[in-house]
Write a structure and sequence with these properties.
Layout: E1 6-10, H1 14-25, E2 29-33, E3 45-47, E4 54-56, E5 62-63, H2 67-76, E6 82-84, E7 89-93, E8 99-103, H3 111-118, H4 125-130, H5 132-139, H6 151-157, H7 162-177, H8 186-197, E9 206-209, H9 213-226, E10 231-233, E11 238-244, E12 247-253, E13 258-259, E14 263-266, H10 270-276, H11 279-282, E15 295-305, E16 314-317, E17 324-327, H12 328-331, E18 341-348, H13 358-372, E19 381-394, E20 414-416, H14 429-444
Amino acid sequence: MELMKTAIVLGAGWAGLSCGVELAEKGFQVTILEQSKRLGGRASSFKDEKTGDTLDNGQHLFMGCYTATIAFLKKIGSLPLLKFQKDLEVNFANKNAEVFTMKCRSLPAPLHLASGILGLKTLSFKEKLSMVKVYRALQHPNGNSPVGKTVEQWLTSLGQSERTRTNFWDLITIATLNEHSAVAEAEPLAVVLKEAFFSTIEKSQIAISTVGLSELCGPKSEEYLKARGGIIQTNTLVTKIAMESAAVKEIVLRDGIALKADLYISALPFYTLKNILDAAQLDGPFFSPIKNLTSSPIFSITLWFDQPITDKEFVGLLDTETQWVFNKNKIYSEISQRNDGSIACVISGAQKFLETSNEDLLKLCLNELSQCFPDSRDAKLKNWIIQREKNATLSPKVGFSKFRLPQKTPFSNFFLCGDWTDTGLPATIESAVLSGVRAASAATR
């Protein structure tokens, strides 16, 4: 009887789980090692002890263009936990408590987006018409290539006014790239716009998880692996990847135990991978580029009010530090019947607030909510919690792409995955899942 080949995956985030599931499907006995208690990595969730509610460590939206993620969730049986919009619809609010809606009609792309933009009252007709230049540049870049330019530089060169950028493009940029338009490279945004909004109407559909992110990806992945002889070990810290000649010899855990397998796949963030590589490897020609990568933080401020402050599922805020507000009562099935106000506020690209106290962040957030949502002025704040994900995503600064590593390494049995690897996408859940699928494919090719 032929023994199953074995694989060890380092990290049980979305990349590690998708990679492990793919390897298990290909007949490998998979062991996934995760240093924390929960699954999902930097897109995970946990139970808040004080309220009993499930909290994500950063609210995420999914889209119909997340083909690898949708396929992964379908494979493990979690896809029904995502709720898709029928047609693309996004609400915006400003500090004058005005709410604006971009509701797209069921038309072929990009006409559906045009119909939504034409009905958006935050922009003049001239500003809306100028957006055609962005569409044309994506179809035929010519002298308007986004490569090597910041988002701000690229959009300005395409005639996008400051108000157009503030009231539309900047919110898309911060939501998809987790970085501000003055810093983020335009090429990843161009990829998102072309794939998500100008491709097909199905790909532009927004979806949101009705459960916590860990519940969305974790239990079903664990069941899938277990049914095929695999296992996920949490609270397991890898401290060293021991390499010998042109292959990985073993991986070493915190307690000194060494584990061996036929294949090894790192699904660790680049800043963690740096800590467990030998110095000689980290300084070598293949791995050394990751020393040039940096992270961008996301802060999540969850607030519990005694009454609802909005009837919308999620709202983009205009000209505020808080960029997005999510109405958890409208999103999470477990609290959908409660008549209170559970709100998650998101500040992406939050570098400027790294030294700001939680109390000052709370004041900032409450002040902006009171301006944008009048009902919050009469609501009583019952509880609050702030989560700081300092290394939330890879920062897509100009030139960052050349430092992203491929799935295949110079070591015959060692492969890489993670949202930061060279997937051609921004560092999103989709990039993470796609990298896991590609790593499994490269490892078993």
